[in-house]
């Protein structure tokens, strides 16, 4: 029942290695499961320690590990339907209720309010608190929008209420408009991120925050909207009575710093802005004898925000239609109430899933960036070895890279370099894509893949570049300059050519300072941390053997040509495997041939 026909036992030697290295990762700042205990026994198993043909008996050992959860990406594949290529399916194939239960459990247990109570800060780059609650709240809102690449079209304080109109386009461009569902979701996402800030709850205990998107409802908020709707009939609602009234109707004249101004039959009405709760446009009214009330109602609700628009029933009907229309309206209203409740619950659930998946993408990208910066290779990055909370899990054939080699493979059974050092960022992204597929249809695939493309590469590169700049002592700016990146790439190329030790090189470079003998540092680098030619020859020979394939480049190119000219024949030759799958596998095999030839040529040059 164990993988690779093994016996499922761990020995003391590898257990101590796992214990020490996982704790090393933790203290390097790499998110990881922790080693709690290491218990050995008198039971023994036979192991060939050096794969030399000289096996020995070793004591069996158990390492107890700690983590928030041991759920993995692969846990969601329990509901996977039958695969069109392999014909295999999950044990609970297409059990979508179970899929939703599992996703809700992960969201509610490990991602409350996008990071609160789970060890993350939610929003980074926040301004320091000044002690002025209004200034602090405004600063947090502005920083959150900046982090999310959004714009504040309007930000205004009205008494103890801050109103912010958010847009995905700059103020000098037209907003997305009322038909955009995107801005509604973005606004909710901003709210969830704000709640991840520890100080926000205390601030919002005394102040009210209103976030809105332009044109998303019939509520008028921005200066541009007040200008655009000038002369139109509006309703102004107040938070407390003004002149014994809480509702004022009239044609909009405008607003200034102190008042919202209406015109009612030539008479100006000034409502103090500090008392204004909202200014709304009236909903549409039905034509005489209209039998399509439900259609019109839903059409209007689609144009506006269902949470802020109420339908006014002031239709005038003919006597013969009144009873029929009343019954129709009654049924429609009941159906709409049920539909709205269900739609609201579903929308809340989808917002939660967006928040969770987005945060997991960011955590995973940041995790692999740390692996790359510290030279850590996992070894077996399949979906069952990726944590749903973004920590390092399952320490098996892992390794810390010594001589810098982008194609370093720490797993002796990885003959193709699938999980090599340089492949780790892309394979982690691929695993997130497989997770997205496993979450569909509870969390639609098109939504998750859009988040993946939006967040992963950006987060990875920002985190990795920041760490590399720190290793090189280039801390003058948060944004690397072109010269910084050129220096970094040039160093890596030189390290690869010389087989320089990854950790030792950076430790040696840390000695560089004013007044230090640079020649002495260079001498130490070249003699202590760079590999001699004979060692490099052995390294390239091993790689040539690792990437060796049984087919030549000419044969593989012949198969690719046949994929174009005779796809059915090629598929039949390989047992019915789809041509697209074959084309991908043949292309990967060609890459391995090239790697083998490159390593062999380097070996010959060094001998």
Automatic annotation (TrEMBL):
Residues 326-350 are annotated as: Disordered. One of its GO terms (molecular function) is metal ion binding. It comes from Eutreptiella gymnastica. Keywords: ATP-binding, Magnesium, Metal-binding, Nucleotide-binding, Nucleotidyltransferase, Transferase. InterPro entries: RimP_C, RimP_C_sf, SelO. The keyword Transport does not apply. SUPFAM superfamilies: YhbC-like, C-terminal domain. Its cofactor is Mg(2+). Belongs to the SELO family. Transmembrane segments: none annotated. This is Selenoprotein O. The keyword DNA-binding does not apply. Residues 334-349 have a biased composition (Acidic residues).
């Amino acid at each position: 029942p164990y993988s690779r026909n093994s016996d499922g036992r761990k020995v003391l030697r590898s257990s101590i290695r796992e214990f020490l290295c996982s704790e090393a990762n933790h203290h390097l700042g790499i998110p990881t499961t922790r080693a709690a205990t290491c218990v050995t026994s008198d039971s023994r198993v036979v192991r060939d320690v050096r794969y030399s043909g000289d096996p020995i008996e070793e004591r069996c050992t158990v390492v107890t590990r700690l983590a928030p959860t041991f759920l993995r990406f692969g846990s969601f594949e329990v509901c996977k339907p039958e695969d069109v290529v392999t014909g295999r399916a999950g044990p609970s194939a297409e059990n979508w209720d179970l899929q939703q239960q599992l996703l809700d459990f992960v969201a509610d247990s490990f991602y409350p309010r996008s990071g609160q109570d789970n060890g993350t800060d939610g929003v980074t780059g926040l301004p320091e608190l000044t002690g002025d609650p209004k200034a602090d709240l405004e600063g947090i809102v502005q920083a959150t929008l900046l982090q999310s690449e959004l714009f504040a079209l309007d930000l205004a304080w009205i008494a103890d209420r801050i109103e912010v109109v958010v847009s995905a386009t700059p103020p000098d461009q037209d907003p997305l408009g009322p038909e955009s569902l995107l801005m509604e979701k973005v606004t909710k996402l901003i709210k969830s991120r704000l709640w991840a800030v520890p100080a926000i709850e205390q601030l919002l205990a005394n102040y009210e925050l209103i976030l809105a998107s332009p044109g998303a409802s019939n509520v008028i908020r921005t200066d541009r909207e007040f200008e655009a709707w000038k002369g139109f009939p509006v309703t102004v609602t107040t938070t407390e009575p003004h002149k014994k009234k809480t509702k004022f109707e009239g044609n909009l004249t405008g607003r200034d710093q102190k008042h919202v101004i209406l015109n009612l039959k030539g008479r100006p009405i000034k409502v103090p802005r500090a008392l204004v709760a909202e200014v709304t446009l009236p909903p549409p009214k039905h034509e005489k004898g209209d039998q399509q009330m439900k259609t019109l109602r839903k059409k209007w609700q689609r144009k506006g925000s269902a949470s802020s628009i109420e339908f006014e029933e002031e239709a005038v009907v003919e006597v013969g239609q009144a009873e029929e229309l009343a019954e129709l309206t009654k049924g429609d209203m009941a159906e709409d109430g049920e539909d709205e409740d269900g739609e609201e619950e579903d929308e809340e659930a989808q917002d939660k899933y967006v928040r969770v998946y987005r945060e997991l993408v960011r955590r995973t990208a940041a995790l692999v960036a740390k692996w790359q910066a510290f030279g850590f290779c996992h070894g077996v990055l399949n979906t069952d070895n990726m944590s749903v909370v973004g920590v390092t899990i399952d320490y098996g054939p892992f390794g810390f890279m010594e001589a810098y080699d982008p194609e370093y493979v720490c797993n002796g059974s990885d003959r193709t370099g699938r999980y090599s050092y340089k492949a780790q960022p892309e394979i982690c992204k691929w695993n997130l894509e497989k997770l997205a597929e496993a979450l569909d249809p509870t969390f639609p695939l098109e939504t998750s893949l859009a988040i993946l493309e939006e967040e992963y590469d950006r987060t990875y590169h920002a985190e990795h570049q920041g760490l590399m700049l720190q290793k090189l002592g280039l801390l003058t700016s948060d944004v690397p300059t072109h010269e910084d990146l050129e220096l970094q790439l040039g160093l890596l190329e030189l390290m690869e050519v010389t087989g320089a030790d990854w950790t030792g090189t950076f430790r040696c470079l840390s000695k560089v300072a004013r007044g230090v003998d640079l020649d002495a540092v260079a001498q130490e680098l070249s003699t202590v941390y760079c590999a001699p030619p004979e060692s490099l020859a052995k390294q390239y020979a091993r790689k040539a053997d690792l990437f060796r394939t049984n087919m030549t480049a000419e044969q593989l190119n012949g198969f690719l040509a046949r994929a174009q000219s005779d796809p059915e024949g090629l598929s039949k030759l390989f047992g019915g495997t789809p041509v697209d799958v074959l084309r991908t596998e043949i292309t990967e095999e060609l890459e391995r041939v090239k790697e083998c030839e490159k390593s062999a040529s380097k070996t010959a040059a060094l001998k």
